[in-house]
Amino acid sequence: MTDSSPLDSFIPPISNACGPGKINLLDRLRQWPEYEQTRNERSSEIDRWKAEVLKRAGRDAPRRVLFVHGQLPGETGSGVYMQQIARESIRKGIDMYVLSAGYKTLDESDINGVPDERIFTCLFTPPGETPRPGAVKTPISGMSVVMPYQVLAYRDRTQEELLDFLTVFGNLMAQLVFRLQPDVIHVDHLWFLNGLARLIAPWIPLVASAHGTANKLIIDAPRFRELMVPCVSSVDHVCAISPESVQECQEIFEIPPECISSEGYGYEPELFNYKGVDRFRVLRDTIRVDAARSRHLAVSVGKFVDWKGFKEFAAAIGHLRKRGYDIMAIIVGEGDPDSRSELEAFIAANGLGDTVLLPGKVEREVLPDIYRAGDLYVLPSHVEPYGLVLMEALACGTPAVAGNVGGPPSYVPQTLRDEGLVVLVDPIKLTPSGAALPEDRELYGRSLADGMESILKKKIDPEDRFRIADEMKALNWSRLVESLAGIYDRLLGKALSNDAIREAGPG
After folding, report:
1. What is the arrangement of strands in the sheet containing 400-403, beginning at the earlier edge strand?
2. 186: β partners
3. Residues 6 or more apart in contact with residue 200 via CB below 8 angstroms
4. Partners of 219 in beta bridges
5. Burial 106-128 (b: 16+ CB within 10 A, else e)
6. pLDDT in tens, 403-421
7. Residues 6+ apart with CB under 8 A from 62
8. What's the pLDDT at 3?
9. Strands (E), 164-307
10. Distance from C-alpha of 148 to C-alpha of 336, rounded to nearest angstrom
11. Nearest-angstrom CA–CA distance, 219 and 383
């Protein structure tokens, strides 16, 4: 947004008066001298909002939703989630707008199927560059320490840097809220932006998606716990991606069970589906890999970080080759240079340099053919909040092996497990700190190899692949958006029937 607004300074600078580790966003913002005055003045805004919503409802108009995502779209699982929710919502007639993060222009935040005029970008400062006027002074913050693009990890962000981010992002969100008058605000992730949304428009129903990263964020940066918990606990409803995320919401953020639903992810059936593929051509032309040197191919996709389990996957390939299987593997993705170097060193140390290949990142449109080219897909993660890549691979008809942890047990059809087309192996044991001991890594690698061997012995044919893809058809984005629409309508109906709406406040 480029136009000025009286709300440009809606979020004033916040001084660090609470001391290190003691900043509580909602409590601190309540201490503004202007807060009570601003809140009282907003009673008229509430009246106008309610009248506008009722007017739209009277015309049977679509619900208007502002979807807030504080990272780059499409670069991570949650970024894909945001893109697909926005696109599918518009397809289904929901009046959806998106506020996301970016470094340059709208182009890098382009969402296929979402008109440019519905996308707004909060600009951040690329690493090593001088901050521009109106932009966040620091790089985008990643919900994980390792991201597929350059970020400033939250654990490394100072209080001053965090407050700068909250101020700039909050001002833009405030402008959009008062311009668009949304019926619902939906924030992607459980984090600080939930508190900002509640503070800016306490009368608007607030939904948040839980991607399973909030707990890791608090572990990485425990000094932010006192800030995050009240921000997250202020939401009206949490859409968790897995049963584990539901438990996390209850235990860490004390969200009542009736305010949480397990919604999961979805996939794009027009992109991810089963059809025949020329393995050698696909791998040769897309990622410059010669697949002719082995009979079997195992595929995995993800960012290079230890908990993704790629070392154990490589070890499993080594075990299978020792058992006489002519098999190679490709791991598609990238991470920080140190993580990639560690994985490369492990592969070399185990004599797998010509067998386990790391072709790097590919365009999303290429992924379906890579999934189809594999004899099997492997998701070797130590922990896995959801595992969207596994869902996509199955939708492409590829049998799979995964750890029996996190999201996969919640969405892999039991029929595929019973037929041995998907094998969920015992998860790796982790210490309380989340680390894995060498002996447990070795055991997990052998378990992955056993699961892969059981699939290879089945001699999967095209009919099996069609059946795998067919079993996944119900788990598409359309299903998820229909569920979200029901949540929006329920919360909005509750808000409109609340005679005390003017008394609503943060927290």
Report:
1. 356-360, 327-332, 296-301, 376-379, 400-403, 422-425
2. 67, 207
3. 10, 170, 173, 174, 177
4. none
5. eebbebeebeeeebbbbbbbbee
6. 998 889 988 999 999 999 9
7. 56, 93, 94, 95
8. 39
9. 184-188, 206-210, 237-240, 260-262, 296-301
10. 8
11. 15
Q: How, if at all, do strands 422-425 and 356-360 pair?
A: unpaired
Look-up of token digits 């809140």: 39
**DSSP secondary structure code for residue 421 in this structure:** S
Question: What domains can be seen in the chain, in order of their start residue?
Answer: 25-266+478-503 (3.40.50.2000), 279-471 (3.40.50.2000)
Q: Which amino acid is at 292?
A: A
DSSP state of 335: B
> Phi and psi of 234, rounded to 5°?
-85, -5
| Token pair of 260 as six digits | 């949480």
Entry pTM: 0.77
**Statement: residue 143 has pLDDT above 60:** yes
DSSP notation for 118-171 = GEEEEE-PPTTSPPPTTS-SSPPPPSSSS-SS----GGG--HHHHHHHHHHHHH
pLDDT digits (tens, 9 = 90+) for 295-307: 899 999 998 888 8
CA distances (Å), origin 352, targets 7, 315, 331, 344, 355: 59, 9, 13, 9, 5
- Return d(Cα 413, Cα 416) in angstroms, integer: 6
